[in-house]
Specification:
This protein has a single domain, classed as Aldolase class I (TIM Barrel, Alpha-Beta Barrel). The chain is built from ten helices and 13 strands. It has a ten-stranded mixed sheet with strand order 10-9-8-7-6-5-4-11-12-13. The chain has a three-stranded antiparallel sheet with strand order 1-2-3, with no helix packed on it. Helices cover 27% and strands 19% of the residues. The chain is α/β, with parallel strands linked by helices and 329 residues long. The longest helix has 12 residues.
Amino acid sequence: MFKNFDRGYLTETYALLFNTQSGVEILQGINGNDDPFFLQMPSLLDIGIMGTCKHKCVFCYQGHEQKPNMTLSDFRRVIDQVKDYTNQVALGGRGDPNKHENFKEIIEYCRKNNVVPNYTTSGIDLTPDEIEISKMCGAVAVSEYEAPYTYKAITNLIDAGIKTNIHQIYTNQTHIKSLHILLGYIPAEWKFDYSKLNAIIFLLFKPQGAGKDVKYLMPTEAQIKDFSKFVFKDNGRFKIGMDSCLINHVLKYSNPTELQRMSIDTCEAGRMSAYITQDLKFKPCSFAEKHTEVDLTKDTIENVWNNSKPFSMFRYYLTCNPDICPIQF
């Protein structure tokens, strides 16, 4: 089994194995220990390299405040601290990561250090050069805006042989469409070759940032209950995923099989993953409030991860109930 993995991290209590080509990760307790509840360092790091965005999406949880993008030197500093432990980074922030002025250098530095880069984009003005650079990524997710640029980006990424996902924000207005996707129906506007999609990932709408002004987009409990009936019904059409914010609600109203339950990740914030803002503020989750941030210009990632109060509190909440959201979306 070990020959199928090209990255590994071993402690006295657990082994973490990762395949940088397939994205398969295995975490297992060793030496008589159970699987760990949290790691000594994050295996996935969400890095908000973007501080600027010219688009004003009404639901953007980051809000519309404009800040400088993360510098290349700061990004390299982050990777240098985590490269021996972190298998993947998810690039995001306030805007499209592919529009970062050092996009190519950022992706190359990840690969140079055997860390797999991934990113999410709106697909707006995705250029041939950006697509070529994206071939170095593990996967690219395109946010479903139901616009021509969305489907053009998906088509071009798929045609380039890049593992491509769709991010569908789950709101009370996309509820019916989401049900149709779960049932295997194809949205009429999908003119691209959807058979080549890697997966469709449902993301719960977050009433944060600009989203605070459109709280009516939150799906109702009745809708989530309805959605949950079909999540684990295999229609054979698409691979389906959800963020942990949504799966925590779905688990209230569904009964996955033992095998399905093994494939579910509830909230990993501060346990397996964390978020770094464009100005080097480190916190357990990208949706966590400012009081959970620790300034990495004054501390190290390892020390904050293992010894800071915000991370300890997140782990305490999730130890008490792993199926909740510490920020209660």
